[in-house]
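Re: duplicated header lines in exported structure tokens

Our pipeline writes sequence and tokens for each protein into one text file. With two proteins the header for the second block appears twice in some exports. Here is an export where it did not happen, for reference. First protein block:
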Amino acid sequence: MITPNKAITVAESALGKAPAILRIGPGAIDVLRLYESVASQFDSIDQFLLALDVLYVAGRINIDVPTRTVTYVA
């Protein structure tokens, strides 16, 4: 579900849905508000969280856990 394979297309993978999160930037946003903004583009909150993980590992976002804020990295 993170990366595409024979059974999961790029569009269905968390990697393929991550750009939806990037389009919301560039300012800081609360994780819940971010999810509400892009929920219709994800099949589940699990897929949204996987996409956040992908973007964090790729260095495209920072996540401040105590404040529950996502900040976009240039």
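Second protein block, exported in the same file:
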Amino acid sequence: MLLSGCTVGRVYVGAEIMENPDTRIVIGSTTKSDILGIYGPPRRVQRQYDGDLFIYSYFRKNSSTLNIEEPVVTDLTIFTYTRVQQKKDSLVILFDKDGVVKNYGFYRETEELTPY
């Protein structure tokens, strides 16, 4: 007699960055208040002499495992397959002393994850 089992796990950390910054942020015009209205509070704020830095990040990890076992006589695991995928989206926004966006960087990787 063989027994098989499958587990699926998902871990999400942070708030998903829903708005594409290329369509929402205008360098030299968008303010801290605008950014907070669009993206909410950042995951991290770094204070600097010439302006603050807002850091937004969203981490996703998907995993799946398949086990085939003989649980009665030998309690032997015959086969195990594990697949783990993890990706991160990040948005970093640099403000000048007046609280206006000086520059930003963005990359999105979580769309590359398969749904299973």
